[in-house]
Amino acid sequence: MADDLDAWRQEIRAIDSEIIKITARRMELALKIGQYKADHQLPVKDFRVEKEIVERSRTLAANLGVAPDFIEDLMTLLMGHSVQEQNKLHQAKHQKADDRLKEVLIVGGLGRMGRWFAQYFQSIGFQVSIYDISTSASQTFTDQSEYYRWHGDIENDLDRYELILLATPIAATAALLSTFAALKPRGMVIETASLKSPVWDGIQAMQKAGLKIASIHPMFGPDTDLLLDKNILLCSAEGLSSHEAATLYFHSTSANLVEIDLHAHDEEMLATLGLAHLINLLFGVSLSEQSLTLKEAVTKGGSTFMHQAKTAQSLFAENHELYFDIQALNP
Fold first, then answer.
1. Are strands 163-166 and 231-236 parallel, antiparallel or unpaired?
2. How far is residue 90's CA from residue 46's CA, in Å, rounded to a whole number?
3. CA 94, CA 39: separation in Å to the nearest integer?
4. Where are the alpha helices (DSSP H) in 96-226?
């Protein structure tokens, strides 16, 4: 019996070695694909391929008697690392604007979520233009000018765009919607504010002007590489084009598209955003007032503490103004 145990262990060691070798081969192929994408001016991320890989892997796992959730987690790790490595290659290449593509304008495109949406729409075949009021906009944009076009005047030349997406602070979003209601762009406008009550007047102004306005809320941050298990809230109300926007621009991804009543949105966000943020803020502030330093606490903390500390750290590294608005502007 002991001989059998040793033999099984040796076989597992051999299989482990094969898994590592196959993983290395997969990464080698991923880098070749990444180089091809960089050479041929193709975007790194393809969220539709992500969905196909996950569905195919889950089906195969079920057929082989392996837990599909386990295989999904494994494939997510592999895909995430592949994207990171391909990004390194892509950053060294230049991608020129293409007049043949459909066009989207990302307002607030130099912010972190604005950059995320720019990459996303580029990945699904759009020519991306960026508008931003940042004082260092022209200098910052130089680093991205090979990838995206710069839109200099928000009040002119808007009819070229099939879509205008607002990745802007809540107060700025409300003002921009009122501006667009007067300018009457031909394309759909998507607002992505984390709270909807402050932008409701602007949404109504767009509707009264007879314009297409969609209201969504991506429930993830700008560091997201994969949309698997991520939620995008589609705010529904009379006259909104949120479902049309989802069908046109997000349905082919692996994100969860979740309908929510626009007028109930902010109340529900009290729990899923406001309360969650507040707890982590209180944890971070309280920890900073302890005699134990964070470095010392990490060496002495249990698994619950480690998870909480990691979550709090990520929160404090994010957009402070946005988190303040989420706490202060929710009625």
1. unpaired
2. 14
3. 9
4. 112-123, 137-142, 170-183, 200-208
In eight-state DSSP terms, residue 261 is E
Helix (H) or strand (E) holding 189: strand 188-191
- Which residue(s) pair with 102 in the sheet? 126
CA dihedral over 320, 203, 276, 112, signed as positive or negative = negative
Res. 123 pLDDT band, cuts 50 70 90: confident
Starting at the edge strand that comes first in sequence, how are the strands of the sheet with 231-236 ordered?
A: 149-150, 126-131, 102-107, 163-166, 188-191, 213-218, 231-236, 256-261
157 near 184, Cβ under 8 Å?
Answer: no
Among candidates 22, 83, 64, 27, which has minimal Cα distance to 226?
83
In angstroms, what CA-CA distances link 296 with 228, 302, 304?
Answer: 35, 12, 16
CB-facing half-sphere around the CA of 62: CA atoms within 13 A: 8
pLDDT digits (tens, 9 = 90+) for 185-236: 999 999 999 999 999 999 999 999 999 999 999 999 888 888 888 899 999 9
Residue 232, SS3? Answer: strand
The answer to whether 222 touches 248, Cβ cutoff 8 Å, is no
